[in-house]
Amino acid sequence: MVEHSKSDDLEFNPAIASQQSLIKLRYGARELTNFPNPVARQQIYGAHKSRWRGRGMDFEEVRIYKPGDDVRSIDWRVTARTQVTHTKVFSEERERPILIITDLRGSMFFGSQRLKSVVACEIAAALAWAGLAANDRVGGLVFGQQQHEDVKPKRSHHSVLQYIHSLHSFSKYLLNSDEESLTLKDMLHESKQLVLPGSTLFIISDFNDLNDKCSKHLFDIARLARVNFCHVYDDLEIDLPPPSIYAVSDGKNKMLLDSRNESLRQSYAHSFRTRSDEIKNVNEKLGGHLLTFNTSENIISILGRTYGKRRRRA
């Protein structure tokens, strides 16, 4: 007879993000070879080109010498041939840390097929593995109801595994948590402390409480980093279930939901559309990228549409 511990039960509980599953996502993340390559802003050599020019690793062009150019870059062969002083120009390679902000607050503990919190953990893990495969430094923050944990960006498997451990722990806390939750504004305020110039930032959330108070923090962050929204939602948030009477509960209180009420159905659907439009509008103002994740879909397939090999060939 094979014995297993209580921790084993938690590892394979569908309401909790499994560390084993999150680690396995590194194989799918290898297909995300077209991961974003924004214009970097910091003076550190790394694995990604910027549009900045100077002495770097990759030759850019030869042009006529201008006062102030580095004399060490003069191309003497072209100068001798043309009798006009020419200089070599190089494209600098610069680093872009990947920062992942994962929302594991109470509103994410919801789903008709899979929980938004579990899907959010999968997205975060896949992005972290993809960043590491691209030779970037990877880190970020994981937010729960009243606490958070940060992982400083590093170019190491240990950093990714540390982040995955935090994802698993915080998704497990949701099973028994009834604390009053942090707000998205609180999350963004805290995230600003970790954002580095030239970073690529992913915010994974349902953005249920996105409002004007969040805007200041988002625009402050956008001055330093490229902001990407990963909007996680469930089919049950788009429309109420088929017309009938349902017993529903928030874990403490129970009530009956009459989904036969047409005005209620319309109001419910309108609320989701309004929030989705607001998320899209804010993201566009930030100049970022929006990815939407339905809890019923495979997250690697969704990421592959934007960052996969086929996308790059297209």
Model description:
The chain is α/β, with parallel strands linked by helices. The protein has two domains: 6-38 and 96-313, von Willebrand factor, type A domain (Rossmann fold); 48-94, no CATH class. The chain contains eleven helices and eleven strands. Strands 6-5-4-7-8-11 form a six-stranded mixed sheet, sandwiched between helices. It has a three-stranded antiparallel sheet with strand order 1-3-2. It has a two-stranded antiparallel ribbon with strand order 9-10. The longest helix is centred in the last third of the chain and has 25 residues, at 262-286.
Describe how the helices and strands are arranged:
Layout: H1 6-11, H2 19-29, E1 48-54, E2 58-64, H3 76-82, E3 86-94, E4 98-103, H4 116-133, E5 138-143, E6 148-154, H5 157-173, H6 184-191, E7 199-205, H7 212-222, E8 225-233, H8 235-238, E9 245-249, E10 254-258, H9 262-286, E11 289-294, H10 299-307, H11 309-313
Parallel strand pairs: 4-5, 4-7, 7-8, 8-11
Antiparallel strand pairs: 1-3, 2-3, 5-6, 9-10
Which CATH-level-2 architecture of the largest domain? 3-Layer(aba) Sandwich
H/E order of the elements? HHEEHEEHEEHHEHEHEEHEHH
Portion in strands: 15-25%
Number of helices: 11
CATH superfamily of the largest domain: von Willebrand factor, type A domain
Question: Which structural class fits the helix and strand makeup?
Answer: alpha/beta
Shape: elongated
CATH topology (fold) name of the largest domain: Rossmann fold
**CA radius of gyration:** 24 Å
Biggest sheet architecture:
6 strands, mixed
